[in-house]
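Technical note accompanying the year-one report. For the benefit of new consortium partners, we illustrate the data format agreed upon in the data management plan: each record pairs a sequence with a C-alpha cell string. No post-processing was applied to the example shown here.
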Amino acid sequence: MMQFIDGALRDAGGAQTHRVIDPSSGETITEFTPAGPAEVDLAVAAARTAYPQWSRATPGERAGILTAFAAEMARRATEFAELESRQAGKPIRLATEFDVPGTLDNISFFAGAARNLEGKAMAEYSPDHTSGIRREPIGVVGSISPWNYPLQMAAWKILPAIAAGNTIVLKPAENTPLTSVLFAEVAAAAGLPAGVVNIVVGAGDVAGAHLLRHPQVDMVSFTGSTRVGRTVLEAAAGTAKRVHLELGGKAPFVVFDDADLDAAIHGAVAGSLINTGQDCTAATRAIVHRGRYAEFVAGVADLFAQVRLGATADPATDLGPLISMAHRDKVAGLVDGARADVRVVTGGAAPGGAMSAGSYYRPTLIADVAPGQRIWTEEIFGPVLTVTPFDTDDEAIALANDTAYGLAASAWTRDVYRALRASAEIQAGCVWINDHIPIISEMPHGGVKQSGFGKDMSTYSFEEYTTVKHVMFDRTGIAEKPWHRTIFTVPG
C-alpha cells in the first residue's frame, strides 16, 4: 500500500503497477498501484475535512505535535536513512549524516516557528482607528516534490504548511516515494490528526495534473524542473491558486585570484558531487581567474580521481549512481555532445565491471568551456563540473550571471570588498562566500529568475503558506464620521 490518505495506508484502485527501482543495482524494491484522480479526490476531501479543526488549533498545540514527531523520527532515523539510500541511490553516509539529520532539524525548527508568527504591531496608524494584522493559513495545499531529495523535500513541503495551520496533499516522485509515505505515517503516530497530511503516489501527468487543477486546492507548491514549473503556473491559473516554485539551477562557482585555492578546490569537489550532482544548488560552472586556472583544474582533477564509487550501503562509498539509466544516458549525452569543443580532463564515462548494473557515472571535469555552449547553459544534473577562465572582476560577475537560472552561487576570495560586491551583484537566491552547499533551517532557500519564486525553510516560508489580513477597529463610536462627507452629506 503506497497511498496515505486520511490517516491510513490504502491501495489505489487502478490496474497498472509501478516499480520502485534501486538505481545502484537495477533491482526492484517494491511494486505498487499508482494513484489516479479518484485517490487525489479522496486525499483533497480528507484535507478539506481536517482543515477547520487544524487551522483553529493553537500554535502551541501544533508545536507540541511537531515536537513529538521529531522525537519519533529520531527514534527511527536508521530506518529512514537505509530506505532513502536504497530508493534514491544515495551513499549511506550521505543519507545518515545529511538527509536524515537535516530533516530532523527541520521538524524541530518548525515546532518552534509555529509559535512565532510575525506581523506589524497593532497601533493607531489612523487617529480614529486601531489596526492589527492576522496571519492566517491558506487552506488545502497541493504539493509536488522531486526525486533527488525525497525525504528532505517532503519535509520542506509539509512542515511550513502544517505549522502555519494548513492541511496538505503531497505527491512525491513515483520512483522515490518510500520515505515520503513513511514520513506521513510517523507524523500520524506522533499525534498528527488524520487528514492533515496526505500522500498520493502517482504519475505527474495523471495524479499531479489533477492535483494542480483541483478546485478544492487553494495553493500549489512545486519543486522540479523549470520546464514543468511553467506547466504548474498554467495549471494554477485556471483557479487563480497561489503558487510556490523552486526550479532548476546552474550555480556559478567564482574563484578570484586571491582565493585560498586549496579551499576552493575541495569546495568545488564537494559542491559539484553532492548527491551525484543531482542537486539544483550544486556547483556546476567553475569560473576561475586565469592566473589560478591551470592549478585549479589540476587540483580538482586529482581529487575527482580519488572519489570512490561503490555500493550505496557501504560507508566507504563517496559517490552513488544517478537516479536511473535514462538519466545517466542524458548526462552522458550532454558530455559527449560537448567533446569536440572542450577538454574532458577526467571522467566522462560510466564505470564497467560490478557497477555496470547500476546507473553510475564517473566524476567528470570539463575545462575550456565557452559561454553559450550547451553544456554551459543547460542543467546537467549529474557529477559534472565545467571550468571557464576570466580576467577581470567585471567579467567574473558577468559570467556568473550569464544564465537563465538564479538559485545559488558561491564566490571565493579573501578580499572583503570583493566578497561584498559578489554577494550583492550575483543574481541568486543564495550566495555563499568561501563555501558552497551548506543549508540551515533558520535561513531561506529559494531562487530568482527562472529558478522560481518563494522560499522553503526558515520563518520566511510562512510568507508562502499564510495570508495577511488587516483588521481595523473604529475608536470613536461616532455614527457620522468626518470622512463620510467625501461621499455624501446629510441635509440640514
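Partners are asked to follow this layout when depositing records. Residues 3-246+458-471 form a domain with the Aldehyde Dehydrogenase; Chain A, domain 1 fold (CATH 3.40.605.10).
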